[in-house]
Protein: Transport permease protein
Organism: Aquipluma nitroreducens
Amino acid sequence: MKQFIGFLRKEFLHIFRDPRTMLIIFLLPIVQLLLFGKVINTDIQNSKIAILDQSHDNTTREITSKLMSSGYFVLGEELMPGDDVEDVFRKGKVKMVVSFGTNFEQTLERDGKADVQLLADASDPNTARILTNYASGIINDYVKKEKLQNIELPNQINTEVRMLYNEGLKSVYMFVPGIMAMILMLISAMMTSISISKEKELGTMEVLLASPLKPIQIVLGKVTPYLLLSFVNALTIIIIGVFFFGVPIKGSFFLLMAESFLFILMALSLGILISTVAPNQMVAMFISVLALMLPTIMLSGFMFPIENMPLPLRIISHAMPPRWFIVIIKNIMLKGTGIMYVWKETLILMFMAFVFIALSIKNFKIRLE
């Protein structure tokens, strides 16, 4: 036991003495979280639109005011009848044009309906779809509450829509859990994947082999320091997510940290497994980044819905650990669920960690080749 503790102390000192390792462990995740959390954002804010008002009555002015005060839109240009709408789009000044027909207010009060046209620049289809959905919602909400509340329409069906767990439809609620899984996966696996490879390159593997330490003690000695440091890292990411991005933790904080601990252990074990088969640091880092980063982003459900993927990719996605971790942290943070709702995903991560550790010990070569 004393030998193992001494080995652990040596690993901690080795990490703390290397400023590049400290930067990668502590600074890089924070920078990535802040950068990705701000850049990867599908929310609409202050998008420039144009208004073509052919009626100029109180209702069209109030609807325009509602659109501008929503925070989603700003008035980029006010068009006059006869202006070329396509020319406005070609200049790139606005993303959408709201066009009110003539006698808008009179038609609405007389017939209970009136025409308003939303023209969007669909060269970016996702943005165009979001803009029109936001504008339609604001206009319909205004007309229903302000204009038609006292009018009885025959055979009217009122549809009430309520969004649970994310009433504001904030995209950051989706991205922060995904980014957290990606960062912990990449940083943890990358740091440990080069550990044993580095010992091989520097020629210090002989010292480990000549020591009375067993393979499992060497593997655990490599994993333990990064496990504790990555846990601190996970705590930092959660604090930033809560206080900087406003993502709530509705479930148990201790369960969230326990699940994060399990995921970090699994990622570190995978990194150790890579390091036992990679001949040098460069190959180990290449495998860690290339083989983990793209599948983590593409197949974990972080960016794209798994249900929309072809069957072979859906099957492959089951082998992606971040897929299960994202489900767990979304359930705990956003839905406030307990272990009874995420036990299956937890067992899968435990099984993966066990398999990676077992394969790492098996692949660890006692003698230098």
Remarks:
- The chain has two domains: 1-41+170-363, 47-147.
